[in-house]
Structures are given as C-alpha cells and as structure tokens.
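ugh ok fine here u go
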Amino acid sequence: MANQQWVVGSFVATFILIQTLFSVAAQAATYTVRSTEIPEFIQLQGLVEATKQATVSAQVSGRVNEVTVDVGDNVPAGTTILTITALEHDHLVAQAQAEVSAWQATFHAEEQELARISSLVERELASVAELDRAQARYDHAKAQLRGAQAALARSQEQLSYTEVKAPYSGIVSARWVEPGELVQPGTPLLSGFAPTELRIHVDLPATYARSANTFQRAAVDGVEPNRMIIFPTVDSASGTVRVRLELAADSEFMPGQWVPVQIQVAAHEGLLIPRAAVQRQGELYLVRVQDHGWRAVRIGAVTGEMVEVMSGVAVGEVIEYEP
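structure:
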C-alpha cells in the first residue's frame, strides 16, 4: 500500500512539474544563442572619499563665540559657520579708520593749498619754490593716505577672519571646538565635505594594470563610474597600482565607506542567454530549446540581465522563455 502511495505521489509531482514547464512555454519569448565577447572582472574593495573635503582652521587668535552648525548639517557655500571674539582686531580697525580720516583731511587741505599756490604762480604772485614745497606736501599727504587705507584694509581682513564661512557647499563631518574655547591660528575648527563629488581609490595588482588600462571599464557595487584613472606608478611595498574612479553626483555612497569594485582585466568569447530563460529544478539548471524541449545546461558568470552558458546549448539554437 505504501509503495502504491509513493508511486502515485511521484506521478502527481512529475505531472505538476511538466505542467509548470509547459505553461511557461505557452507564453514564451525567444532568444537566438550567439557567440559574444564576455568581460572578465577582478573583484576588489575600494575606499570612498570626497573630492572636496577640508578642515577649516582658525586664522586669528581669540575665543570661540558661537558655532552655528553641527555634524550632519548641510551648509551652503558662504554661510557663517563659526564666530570668534577678538577685541584687539576691533581696536585695530577703529585705529586704522581714524588714521584714514586724519590723512583724508590732510590730503584735502594740501590739495586745496596746491591749487591756490598754482594759481598764484600763474599770476606771478608766488615763487616756484613755494609751488614745489606745496607739491611735496601734497604728495606726502597722498602717500600717507594710501598707506592708511592699505592698513585699514589689512585690519578689516584680519577682522573678517573672526567670522568663519563655509568655503563650499557641503556637509559638516566633524566639530573640533565648542563655544568659549581659546583658539590660535591653525587650530582646527570644523571639517566637511561635498557629497556631490565623490571618488573611490582602489589598489589594483600591478600585473593587471596594462589590461585594465586597455579596457577602461569598472563597476562600483554594480554602478559604472563617470571616469576611471589608472596611476602611472607602482607602489613598491604592495606591488599595486592606484586606480581612481569618479562617481556620479547622485551616488549614495559616503566617505570612508568600503565598497565592492569590479575592474575588467580580460575578455573571452562565450554564449550569453537571458537570466529569465534559466529555470532551476533542484540541482539542475534548465532551458527550453525550441523544437527540442527542455535541456540541462551549465551556467557561468552573470553579466547584468544575461548569464553565460558553459555547456548545453549551441550557437544558432533558439531559446524559449517567459520574459
């Protein structure tokens, strides 16, 4: 009785399998097997970094007054991100402004005096020597005014350093100071990077450098980079060549992240068929060949929506499958 049940069960399972396979064939698309060049890739790990990344440092001495941003904030270029209190720079600017005002008054007075003396000389009511002395005083006042204006510009520039601005649009990645801390020129304040300009560095074994340079093809976690640069030197310690991959602006990677990288180093002729054409039944991979029924195949590497067939089909045969 048990043997009869087993036979009946096996028959039902076989019938269901055949029915499933033939139902797939009922709505089949077709694909003609042909020989094509199949790329061969080496699998590596790459480190993501930002093309634009920087640490902003203090350029004046003083005390941190306010930090207006924090880690993770998206900051537009030119935004004030930190302020420093430096009273001596305020005093220097005020002193320089006073110097400019004083020399402006002197310059205007000497300018008027030079015009008056020139008029008298023309009417022969003053000597040329007086005109020379007036011209000298005018030139001196003019030079002093220019010097005072330059000193004011320098002091104003130093004062502007107390208001730290973002050099470019980006995300704050680190905060090194807090309000109330004393800083000196060179003290790190904040770090950030531009998320729209990312690249990946990969160390490729030097034996593959020539072929990788020939094919110029790579993929980063399945995404093709915008540009691939192979450095022209070999690291003597590791025997590798540095490869730089520039990513698209909309990539979702983060600086410091390790990601899988594929670099093409060879190619061979082989047979590719759609992945959808392959049906797995247990340990077997099956495809339906037009006019020949189902056939077991041995598959190889997957390339996008296609899969390499190592054996089981031949060039020119037509595969039927459900798209």
